[in-house]
Amino acid sequence: MAPESWLKISLPAFPVAFTIFGVWLYWRENPLPLLAPSVAFWGVVVLFYLFSHLDLPDGRSYSLFLIIAATSLWMVSAITSHNLGRFVISTRYSGFWSVFGSADFWYAYICAAVACGTGLRHFLRYEPEIVEQIRKDRESIE
Amino acid sequence: MYDVFILGLMTVGISSVVVFSYKIFHSRVYPVGIVRRMPVAQECVDERSAELPASPRRFQQELMSLLEKEWSIGEIADLHLSETDIEGHLQRVKVFAKNYSKQRRPRPQSGREQYRLALRLGETASLEREDSALEVEVKLHSKQFEDFEKRIRRLEIESVQKVQEAAEEKPQPQPPVVH
Q1: Is A132 in CB contact (< 8 Å) with chain B?
Q2: Which residues span the domain enclosing B142?
Q3: B162 and B112 in a common domain
Q4: Quick check: A118 and B23 CB within 8 A?
Q5: Deepest of A116, A133, B55, B139, by most Cβ within 10 A of its Cβ?
């Protein structure tokens, strides 16, 4: 990938990096409740970027529906992460492995993984085409 | 209730993501690239304006700068601009309107629609300037159409003449005599 492509994929990942490096490594707090919605949000932002640079002819709105679906996954991840946070600060939490017994953990991380995976999959598929088109446009302008 | 809502939303979200990802991967997708500051239509107008003779581009630029400064039309009229300047500007506006309408014109897909469009354009082709490939094509089609009509008329005349000649050469049958 081109250097600017790395920048495009890295900037939306800033909340993920903040959760890992700030909340977990610096403040030594449990990152699990914050990590899932950040990961899902990463995928949503990548999809927003992609489909503002792509055009589907004949008035097809697949990209719009895909973004709405990814946003709903982010919302589910955020709601269940909130409940996961309540679980983490309760007495039922007895260590890292105890979160696997919580349904909210699975809801949050499955939705986050699907939203993020979708964004990255589309990014790897269409980003080279966008970069190529931008290169052609720059050459024509110069 | 909470579990049903979350599970339902998650199921709908995941299934929608899978379905629309599949549809996008199997559709034609075009990258947009850089969005230019100047629209393509405006570029076209500027190129056409440069081709026009005896029409100072400076006047157009000055007029546009006045309009951008939110001058009213009355204030601009008070400047007492010459008629040639105004005519030149109007000519540019006409060229712009024509180019813009051409770019907005829907492009037919099938051959029948193309033929209909050519006929429809053929009626108005004499009103427009002959300066585009589309108009040249329309004129060519209308000329071919006239040639077809002439040929059909000539064939009709020839066939009628042949029928008449055949009728003259054929001997008249004798009416039966009844005794």
Answers
A1: yes
A2: 108-167
A3: yes
A4: no
A5: A116
Mark yes or no for CB contact B14/A132 under 8 Å. Answer: no
Tell whether B8 is covered by a domain: no
B152: left (phi over 0), alpha (psi -120 to 50) or beta: alpha
| Per-domain residue ranges of chain A | 3-141
Are B47 and B74 contained in the same domain?
Answer: yes
Are residues B96 and B112 located together in one domain of the fold? no
Sign of CA dihedral A50, A55, A56, A61: positive
Which tens digit of pLDDT belongs to each residue from B18-60? Answer: 999 999 988 888 888 776 665 555 555 555 555 554 455 566 6
Contacts of B20 in chain A (CB under 8 A): 62-63, 65-66, 69
Q: Is A75 in the B-facing interface, judged by CB distances under 8 Å?
A: yes
> Where do we find the tokens 């939203």?
A115
The last residue of a domain, from among B104, B136, B158: B104
pLDDT digits (tens, 9 = 90+) for B136-165: 777 777 888 888 888 888 888 888 888 888
- Note the pLDDT tens digit of each residue in B58-116: 666 666 666 666 666 666 666 666 656 666 666 666 676 677 666 655 555 555 666 66
CA B6 to chain centre: 53
3-state SS of A1-53 is CCHHHHHHHHHHHHHHHHHHHHHHHHCCCCCHHHHHHHHHHHHHHHHHHHHHC
Interchain contact A122–B (C-beta under 8 A): yes
Q: What is the pLDDT of residue B171?
A: 63
Query: So what's the ipTM on this one?
Result: 0.85
Compare all CA atoms of chain A with the CA of B5 and give the residue at the minimum distance: A76
